[in-house]
Write a structure and sequence with these properties.
The structure holds 2 protein chains of 2 kinds. Chain A folds into 2 domains: 216 residues, no CATH class; 103 residues, no CATH class. Chain A has 14 helices and 15 strands. In chain A, strands 1-11-10-9-8-2-3 form a 7-stranded mixed sheet. In chain A, strands 7-6-13-12 form a 4-stranded antiparallel sheet, with no helix packed on it. A two-stranded antiparallel sheet of chain A has the order 4-5. Chain A starts with a helix and ends in a 9-residue tail after the last helix. Chain B is of the alpha/beta class. Chain B folds into 2 domains: 149 residues, Rossmann fold (3-Layer(aba) Sandwich); 74 residues, no CATH class. Chain B has a 5-stranded parallel sheet. In chain B, β3, α3 and β4 form a beta-alpha-beta unit. The radius of gyration of chain B is 19 Å and the shape is globular. In chain B, 46% of the residues are buried. The chains are: A alpha+beta, B alpha/beta.
């Protein structure tokens, strides 16, 4: 069965004039709606209540090391932007969390867990790459046997609703088609919206999603509307120029651990960690124990960290990855090689954030291609 | 706990701002006084310099022959010596003299330069005596100072990160200034610790905390050059409070040979 045909049967129509009803219904259903909105010059994910908060008409320009937003008043589309620096990671795995506190009570230590109860989030306007990123993080944090799941993450995920919007425009930095994560959304979301000038074609992929569309009593979409929407997404997908050749990429990288390219990129890379911080799948954290002046109160915190932070590799009394090249190699080989060994998928979803938000404009797709081009050249300058 | 640890606060070439950060710990000040004996601190008490110290907090750079002797005396009296602030850890803004001739400065600034006894350079404390920990910043951050004191009292390593400012900007959800606005910012190569003060007010980082650990300053210099940041602006960016810190020192200017080391005037 061709996916588009199967999807068409159940497609409904949400007129833009009724979009506020969707937001209102989500709030009434007990969700905290997190959607795209413009703040501090970027499209971010923040709590929204009104349809006016959606960056309707806004278009982003992204290239290596550069992000700009502009408003086009003649643009009838509401979702003409691609992901900004913030991803769902911020909500599902907050940058800083206190895990427990210990205080001395009559000389005896007393521990108290303080992990908060996650809100019921409804993530709205999630693009294909970010839907896939959540699936990738699920494999990190949720143990299917249920033994070693991260309790906050697992609970936040169980409660949340994901409403995807398929992309019809791309930034120069996007490469989701190479990673198979977009722009079409076939799974991982509860509802999938595809935009037309005056409406959205809506498909439900889950019971939770079905409950929302049933409550809104959405009419079916006409076959020509569905065809028009899907055509727009397909055309856009065909226009994406940035690519990663993923053929045998795991083995390619692992046999190139001594490729001179790592030293070459280390001349440009400043190890600032922006790539990992904006990456929607990077999950590394550190754990800190903090005491107060009296020494009576102790707190354990979990803080988002990065493999580009030298202290991240502190072990046996020293920093193991002293050089920038070793840290860059660690990151790239984890994303595109050893991630497969750990989790059965690549760690990259092709959102391009690491390219845009690198202050020196290092392009991960270019680095991968350079490794591929010099594969087999012993000691040759890449 | 037996006797309270004896703490001394010392000053060399500096503006006193870092010492004042200690007095700025208003809410915690009584507790600090309760936990430690403040045995020498000219900004707060007139007690004379006597005996030895469990913890010496040293502010300021070494810029006169007299200070060279003093810092050796303080080191000899102290079990743990911690330098506080950019002057003590990197030589401070006054280390700009290291890039030029101190004689010229003296001639321009003072009516009778022959009365001024100074060294040709302003250098960090660690160039003269062993230092147990360096607390960066211009000025130091109050929370970090408290963390340092708490950790020292508890006998643990302080949680003072040495990574870039970017990590904390991203944790705080602050938009990247160089990427989104084209504003040159030192955050990518600067050690975090200020609580991302300037970026949260849409100002590029001034590098008050000096170079981040094992960073690549030249990578950022080259990128800003490519982006068209004028050379004089780039030079000013790196030549402020931490101009003499290794990394920033060689960022945009050749390091003059005659000012390397600590030549006396």
């Amino acid at each position: 069965m061709a996916p588009d045909e199967g999807r068409a049967e159940t497609a409904l129509l949400l007129r833009k004039t009724r979009f506020q009803d969707l937001l209102d219904h989500l709030v009434q259903a007990g969700y905290r709606v997190i959607g795209p909105t413009v703040r501090e010059g970027v499209v971010t994910y923040d709590e929204i209540h009104r349809v006016e908060q959606i960056p309707r008409g806004w278009v982003d320009l992204q290239e290596p090391g550069k992000y700009r937003l502009r408003y086009d008043k003649n643009n009838p589309f509401w979702f003409s932007f691609t992901p900004g620096p913030i991803s769902l990671k911020r909500y599902l795995f907050p940058p800083t969390q206190t895990l427990f506190r210990v205080r001395r009570d009559n000389g005896r230590p007393r521990a108290e867990a303080v992990i908060p109860d996650p809100p019921r989030y409804a993530f709205l306007g999630v693009r294909g790459c970010d839907v896939r990123a959540v699936a990738v993080q699920d494999r990190v944090y949720i143990d299917r046997q249920g033994q070693f799941s991260d309790s906050y993450y697992a609970k936040a995920r169980e409660r949340c609703l994901i409403i995807a919007v398929e992309c019809q425009t791309f930034a120069d930095t996007c490469f989701c088609t190479s990673m198979g994560s977009g722009p079409q959304v076939q799974s991982g979301a509860d509802l999938v919206l595809t935009e037309l000038p005056d409406a959205f074609v809506v498909r439900s992929l889950s019971d939770k999603g079905q409950a929302i569309v049933s409550a809104l009593e959405l009419p079916p979409a006409a076959p020509e509307q569905v065809a028009e929407a899907d055509q727009a997404v397909r055309e856009a997908a065909g226009s994406m120029e940035r690519r990663v050749d993923t053929t045998d990429i795991r083995n390619l990288l692992l046999r190139n651990l001594e490729n001179p390219r790592w030293e070459e990129v280390a001349k440009r890379c400043i190890a600032c960690a922006n790539c990992t911080m904006v990456c929607p799948t990077c999950f590394c954290f550190t754990v800190q124990e903090v005491t107060d002046l009296s020494g009576e109160n102790i707190e354990r915190r979990r803080v988002q960290d990065s493999c580009f932070n030298p202290e991240f590799s502190y072990a046996f009394g020293t920093i193991v990855r002293q050089t920038v090249s070793s840290r860059y190699r660690q990151w790239l080989t984890h994303k595109f090689a050893t991630w497969y060994d750990q989790f059965g998928t690549p760690g990259c979803v092709g959102c391009g954030r690491c390219i845009t938000w690198c202050p020196v404009g290092i392009d991960v797709t270019e680095e991968l291609q350079a490794i591929r081009n010099s594969d087999g050249e012993r000691g040759a300058s890449a | 706990m037996g006797k309270k640890p004896r703490v001394g606060v010392f000053k060399f070439a500096s503006c006193d701002g870092c010492q004042l950060s200690l007095l700025d710990c208003e809410e915690e000040l009584l507790e600090i006084a309760d936990r430690v004996e403040v045995a020498y601190f000219l900004e707060a008490t007139r007690l004379p310099l006597t005996g030895s110290f469990d913890l010496a907090l040293v502010e300021g750079s070494i810029s006169t022959p007299e200070q060279v002797e003093q810092i050796h005396d303080i080191r000899a009296r102290s079990r743990v010596l911690v330098t506080i602030g950019a002057c003590a850890t990197a030589g401070g803004i006054q280390a700009l003299r290291n890039f030029a001739s101190v004689h010229e400065f003296l001639r321009l600034v003072y009516a009778t330069p022959e009365y001024v006894e100074t060294l040709a350079t302003s250098t960090p404390i660690a160039d003269h005596v062993p230092v147990d920990f360096e607390l960066r910043g211009c000025p130091v951050n109050k929370t970090q100072l408290l963390e340092l004191i708490s950790a020292t009292l508890a006998g643990r390593r302080p949680n003072i990160p040495r990574h870039s400012v970017c990590i904390d900007c991203k944790r705080a959800g602050i938009t990247c200034l160089p990427v989104a606005y084209g504003v040159p910012c030192l955050g990518p190569v600067t050690q975090s610790g200020c609580g991302v003060l300037c970026p949260s007010y849409n100002r590029g980082c001034y590098g008050c905390f000096g170079p981040a650990q094992l960073t690549n300053v030249q990578g950022l210099v080259q990128a800003y050059r490519r982006a068209g940041v004028p050379e004089d602006e780039l030079d000013r960016l790196f030549h402020t409070f931490n101009a003499w810190a290794p990394g920033f020192r060689e960022s945009t200017r050749p390091v003059p040979k005659e000012t390397e080391g600590n030549t006396e005037h």
